[in-house]
Amino acid sequence: MLPPKKDYDLLVIGECFVEFSCENEIVKCGSFKKDIGGADLVTAAAAARLGSGVQLLSAVARDPFQGFIRDRLTSMGINIDHLNICQGFNGLYFTSSLHPESREYLIHHPGTAAKHIAPSMIYDELIEKSKIVYASSELQSVSKAARHAVFKAFHFAHCNNTMTAYDPNLRLHRWESLDDARESLWSVLPLVDVIFPSSPEESKALFGYERPLDVIGFLWDRGVDIVVVKMGSGGCMVGHEGKIREFPVPNAAETFRSPTLVGSAFNGGYLHSIAAGYDAFESAEFANSVALFKGIKGDGVDSLPARGDFSNCDHQNA
C-alpha cells in the first residue's frame, strides 16, 4: 500500500519577527531596511522560495505590522491558514552588516504574539499534511505553552512516521538559564529525526562536546537519524546511517556581507532538498550553497535564493 500523499513539504512552527537592517552601527544609523525575519521564519522562507510547499504555524499580533507580515509571507507562497491573529505586539530586532565577521544583532522583544502559540493549535490533520515538521528552541524559549506545542507536534509526527527536524539554536539571552534550555532540548530529542546543532560553542554548552565528530556520535547514541553539525564558515559535517562526511564551503570572505540568519537559510535549503528526495549528504552540499548565497546577498528574506538561482543544480527542478 502506497503512503498517503502529502499536501506540503514542510510545516514550520515558529515565531514571526520584523527585521530592521542597516549597513552602519545600529545606534548611529538613521535609516533601516524593513523586512520579516526570525530564525524559524527564515527557514520557512528559504524552503518556500526554492519551491517547497510550506505551511507556517505561528501567531501575529494586531499591531501596525500585522498586514505587512501577512503580505510578505503570502508573497513567498507560504500557507498562513494557521496564523493565530491575536492581541499584543510582534517581535522586532535590528541587525547590521557593518562587520560581517562579528554579527551585530540587537534583539528587542516587546512582542507578546508568540505567547499565543499553544498546544490547542496542534491537531492531527495539520501534521499529516506535511512531509517534515520543523521547530527550534527559539520558539521553545517563549513560554511553557509554546514548549508544549512543539512537543505535541513532534510526538504526533514521531508516532505517525512523519519526519521531524529541530535546531537547538541556543540563544542564552532568551532563556532563564542554560539548564532551562537544556531541559527543553532533552524533552524533544527522543522524537527528533534530523538535528542541526552548531559547533563548537553551542554543542559544548548543550552536549559537552566541541568536535563535530563527537557531537555526531553522541546524538547517534540517542537515536537521532541525521545529524548535521554546522561549523560556520567551515561548512558542515553530516552523519547518517553510520557514514560521516564533511562539506566545506568555498572561501567567500571578500564578498560575504552578513552572517545574520545564515544558519536558518541553511536549514531551509537542507529540508527543501530532503523533501525533494535527495539524501542526507546531497542535501548538505546544496544547503551550503543556499547559506553562502544568503551571506553574500545580505539581510532580509529577499536575499534568500529562489528557484532557478542555481543554474547548474538539479535542485532547482525539485
General description of the model:
This protein is an alpha/beta fold and 318 residues long. It has a single domain, classed as UDP-N-acetylmuramoyl-L-alanine:D-glutamate ligase (3-Layer(aba) Sandwich), CATH 3.40.1190.20. Helices cover 33% and strands 23% of the residues. It contains 10 helices and 13 strands. It has helices at 39-49, 66-75, 124-128, 137-140, 144-159, 178-188, 201-207, 212-220, 262-275, 280-297; strands at residues 8-13, 17-22, 33-37, 54-61, 79-86, 91-96, 104-108, 130-136, 163-167, 194-195, 226-230, 236-240, 243-247. The strands form 2 sheets. A 9-stranded mixed β-sheet has the order 5-4-1-8-9-10-11-12-13, with helices on both faces. Strands 3-2-6-7 form a 4-stranded mixed β-sheet. Helix 1 (39-49) packs across helix 9 (262-275). The longest helix is centred in the C-terminal third of the chain and has 18 residues, at 280-297. It is globular, with a radius of gyration of 18 Å. It starts with 7 loop residues before the first strand and ends in a 21-residue tail after the last helix. The model has no long low-confidence stretch (mean pLDDT 90).
Helix content estimate: 25-40%
Count of distinct structural domains: 1
The number of strands is 13
CA gyration radius, whole angstroms: 18 Å
Write out the strand line-up for the largest beta sheet, numbering strands in chain order: 5-4-1-8-9-10-11-12-13
| Whole-number mean pLDDT | 90
User: How is the quaternary structure best described?
Assistant: single chain
H/I helix tally: 10
Reported CATH architecture: 3-Layer(aba) Sandwich
Largest sheet: 9 strands, mixed
